[in-house]
Amino acid sequence: MAIEIKGITIPALLINLDSLMSIEGNFEEIQNKMSSTFFSNSKVVINTNGLDLGEMEKDRLHDILREHGSLIVDFKSNFHLDGREKKKVIEPSNEKRTLMTVSKTIRGGQRVTYDGDLMIIGNVNPGAYVIATGNIIVFGVLKGVAHAGAGGDEEAVVIALNLRPQQLKIANIVTRPPDDDIQSLYPERAFVKDKTIQIEKI
């Protein structure tokens, strides 16, 4: 189990704290994950997941996020992506995803597969495959094949600093790239809506 960082519709980042980890451990992991400039100038909602944060801990979180150019707009407990707060429940362990980080460029002919969320710090070259049962985040150019939600999860997303895939697949839904090879100036997010893959700037 680990903290999770997700996009929500405020628009803001949702940081899910890990209730099985100490408060200090959560702070250290947030420091590590927010170190990339990819999250700069973000608004953030903190989901405490039942952790008891006092004013000192909240002030420390504000300081950590400000160090990375981000702003906390709210604290929630047991917050879900539909915007509603729910009573505490014990989730089945198979619903808890882990994150694997690969810090290298994935070259053509190489394949990276992971049961969980997958983060690539580098490029995904043409002919390379990145496959995950959860989300895929690429801190670089995505020119290969990406398959998120490989276990059938249509809520999975693909995010890249430069999204130019040979093929993009989320769950069992496939899309092909546009005919023009225009390079986006902004990071983009691919997601499923109405059984089609849509792409938006973030």
Describe this structure as you would to a colleague:
By secondary structure, the protein is mainly β. It has 2 domains: 4-91, 2-Layer Sandwich (Alpha-Beta Plaits), CATH 3.30.70; 97-201, Pectate Lyase C-like (3 Solenoid), CATH 2.160.20.70. Helices cover 12% and strands 36% of the residues. The strands form 3 sheets. The chain has a 6-stranded mixed beta sheet with strand order 5-7-9-11-14-15, with no helix packed on it. Strands 6-8-10-12-13 form a 5-stranded mixed beta sheet, with no helix packed on it. A 4-stranded mixed beta sheet has the order 1-2-3-4, with helices on one face. Strand 14 and strand 15 form a beta hairpin. Helix 1 runs parallel beside helix 2. The chain is elongated and about 50 Å long. Residues 80-94 have low confidence and may be disordered.
